[in-house]
Amino acid sequence: MSTGTQAPGDTAAADAAPVAGPNWWRDEASEPIRRNLGLVGVLAALIVIGAVTRPDLYGDPAWVRNNIFTILMQASAIGVVTVGMTFVIIGGGIDLSVGAIMALAGVWATTQATQSFGAGGMIFAALTVGLAVGLINGVLISYGRLVPFIATLAMLVAARGLAAKISGKQTQVSSNLDINSIATDRILGVPVLVIILGLVVAAGWVLLNRTTFGRRTVAVGGNPEAARLAGINVRLHTLRLYALSGLCCGIAAIMLTSQATSAQAAMANLYELDAIAAAIIGGTLLSGGRGTIIGALFGVVVFSTITNLFAINGLTTEDQNMVKGGIIVAAVLVQQFRLKSVTQFLSRTRANT
Amino acid sequence: MARQTPDVSRRRFLASGAAIGGAALLAACTSNATPNNAQTLGGDSGNPNAAPGRRVIIGFSAPAADHGWIAAITNNAKKQAEAFSDVEFKTVAAGADAAAQRAALTGLLAEKPNVIVLLPHDGKELNAWGLEAMRAGIPVVNLDRAFPDPAAYRLQIKGDNYGMGVSAANYVIAQLKAKGVSNPIIGEIAGLDFLELTQERSKGFADTLKAAGFRVANRRAAEFTADTGQREATQLLQALPRMDALWNHDDDQGIGVLAAINAANRKEFFMVGGAGALKAIQDIQADNTVLKATVTYSPSMASSAISLARLIGQGRGMSDLVELQVPKEIVLASETITKENAANYLKLGF
């Protein structure tokens, strides 16, 4: 627990009082908190840049309130997908098919036949399709022993193909007012989309941090062989993780369909890359075994804020994409060269080198 | 100590039965609307060319892309060919990119059709194939995405992307001048930015606005899909708290754009669409949204291409022209659809 920057004499005293003082901050277990605070710092910096470049907009409090809700609403569908993706990545896998699952679920939910069953039927269809495709992914990966990258890549292509076939390559407009109103309704002033995002993030956090399911996920991702020897059914657990990811995609499909009041086979394009990037900058290790839901949420909100910042300044998508790429690289570099070793390097003095 | 494994066979049986039942229920929910009307040439309109002539085999290839416009191209070509009794229609799947399309078309060449109608993935990449086909004696009708080399096609029929921008801008300018707005705030939602056609459309729009002393305040690029249209429109509405006019390049992404506008409850501006989708024309006619006009880029060009390919195959010319042969290049005009003339265009909406 003690770090190398302490002088030997302090160690005993430090161990005796573990809660207060800088040790808590420098402790390895607090790394997620440091990272999340770092992301909050990035968010604050982005908002300050926005306020400085467009003071005419930020001077209006009603606009600012509306803008915050806009950022959160735009982040809601991708946020839900990222929660599922975070679970899969922590469990040691990857799911490249999330965008395609969303498209398939959305298309299936907006066919004439399904729309005739009303809002309930559409939601049931989207969730079931998402869950079913996630299960297929899971079976292929855990019992079929396919590498997750390959299995979900194949599913990416197949699911979009099926979506194109079902929709006849047309955009399917949703004529169901209940579904469409999900994107516009507010409860107590908070948009329903943001509430759904909040509920999914809360459920994800509880699942990861307060249930055995979450503990097993971290175990399976960190060291699958040790987990298996410890009695965890790794194959069944992996299956469940991909099913969870698929379910999240189904939920996100309804949210996106509601926002666009339609669904088509080309929707949710490249969402998998956005979800993976958000999970990574939130602190999830691509190799598995470590990650947080709150970090992933911050990752999604940071990206959404960047998009908003570039839009209000009239900058192009190309510039925006380059900045996003830069942020992903910076986040991973911070992960590689852990902050502790940098502060260690900087605080070397003649006495302790 | 013997360990009894619980008998889970019944549980498995029930679970799989439920799964199959659920799957059957879901599969029943895939029946869908049949593809809507095709924009084809009507029956006998007193045109001497409508009389059946020599049998013509027309080969056809277009990308199998996701957009409704491309689907309408293929649909229109097929329906138009069916409308002629003397045309045999052969399609080949164009595959996912230019290389796959080249391979498919080389196979088509071997079957020796009379004429080939082609919407290439990319005009420059299929130019060489066009030259090869023309040298083999098979006339090529190049649709929409142009071959740069005139020797590579017998007929090139395309829309006018630059003209679309010009038409949209002319409508916007006329409306703003009529309302007496000075210094208007104009927004633009473009399509896929890396496509040349998007750049041409934006240029036409910007050039025409500049000549009138206006400029585009903020331009966002979506991806021709409804969900990206919604995303970019939401950002644009945030960036411009007050707007006077908006041009959206494509009516399919316009579904998302209108959803975003309705969600933000913004009504102070008017919107011009693009491409001429049926839903957009209906909305313009009903006049209950901010969408007031659209500029056409109609997939009916595929029907015209088949029609002219038949004439080329039969050695005829267009009856309205004095010349005896079909022209080399036809650029369709971008027509502006407003509430006044919407009724005329309903049958051309895709």
Name the CATH homologous superfamily of the largest domain in chain B.
Response regulator
**Cα gyration radius of chain A (Å):** 22 Å
Q: Helical stretch count of chain B?
A: 11
Integer count of domains of chain B: 2
List keywords for this structure.
heterodimer, A: 353 residues, mainly alpha, ABC transporter involved in vitamin B12 uptake, BtuC, two-stranded antiparallel sheet, globular, B: 350 residues, alpha/beta, Rossmann fold
Task: Explain this structure.
The complex is a heterodimer of chains A (353) and B (350). Chain A has 353 residues and is mainly alpha-helical. Chain A contains 18 helices and 4 strands. Chain A has a two-stranded antiparallel ribbon with strand order 1-4. A two-stranded antiparallel ribbon of chain A has the order 2-3. In chain A, helix 8 (118-143) runs antiparallel to helix 9 (148-167) and helix 12 crosses helix 14. The radius of gyration of chain A is 22 Å and the shape is globular. Chain B has 350 residues and is an alpha/beta fold. Chain B has 11 helices and 12 strands. Chain B has helices spanning 9-27, 68-83, 98-110, 127-135, 161-179, 196-211, 226-239, 251-264, 278-286, 301-313, 342-345, and strands at 56-61, 87-91, 115-118, 140-143, 155-158, 186-190, 216-221, 245-248, 270-275, 291-296, 329-331, 336-338. A 6-stranded parallel β-sheet of chain B has the order 2-1-3-4-5-11, sandwiched between helices. In chain B, strands 7-6-8-9-10-12 form a 6-stranded mixed β-sheet, sandwiched between helices. The termini of chain B are far apart. At the A-B interface, helix 5, helix 7, helix 8, helix 9 and strand 1 of A face helix 1, helix 2, strand 7, helix 7 and helix 8 of B.
